[in-house]
Amino acid sequence: MRDILEKKQVKKKILTNRTKTQIRRDRDPLPWRYCVLTVICGVILVAGFFLAARSHFSSIDYGMRNSTLRKQIEELEAEKRRLIWARETAMSPAEIRRSMKRLGIGEMPTITMASFAPDRMSSSAPRQAANIPTAKPVKAVMATVDSKPVGRSSKDGSVKSTASVERADSREPSRVQIARR
Amino acid sequence: MATRNRKAKTKNPMQTAFTRFMLIVAFFVLWIGAIGTRLVHLQVNQHDTLRDKALGQRRQSVKEKQPRGTIYDRSERALAITLKVKSLYADPTEITDIDATSREVAKALKLKPQEISSKLNEARAKNSRFVVLAPKLNDETVKSVNAAFENFDPRKADHPRMPGLHWQDEQRRSYPFDSLAAHVLGFSNADDLGSAGIEQSQEENLRGAVIKGWRDRDRLGRVYDRSEDEEREPPKDVVLTLSHSIQYKVEKALAQGVKNAGAKSGMAAVMIPQTGEILALANYPTFDPNRYNEYSPELFTNRAVHDVYSPGSVFKLITYGAAINEGIINPDGQVDCTQGSITVAGRKFNDPHATKWMSYDEAMAVSSNVAAIRTGIATGRENFYGYAKKFGFGNPTGVELPAEANGILRSPKSWNGDSLASMSIGYEIGVSALQMATAYATIANDGVRVQPRIIKEIRQDGKVLSSTEAQKSQVVTPDTARYLKRMLREVVLKGTGRRAQINGYSAAGKTGTAWKYDEKLKRVNEKKYVSSFAGMAPYDSPSVVIVVVMDEPTSAARDGGQVAAPVFRDIAEQILPELGIEPNAAAQPDSANAEEIPSELDPKTARRTQTKTAKPDKAVKDAEKSAKQEKPAEPKPAPKKENATPAKDKNRKGKTARLDEKELIFEHRGLNGSSVRRLNAAFADHEFVAPIFEYRAVAANAERPGVKT
Question: Which 3-state string (H, E, C) describes B291-306?
Answer without folding.
Answer: HHHHCCHHHHCCHHHH
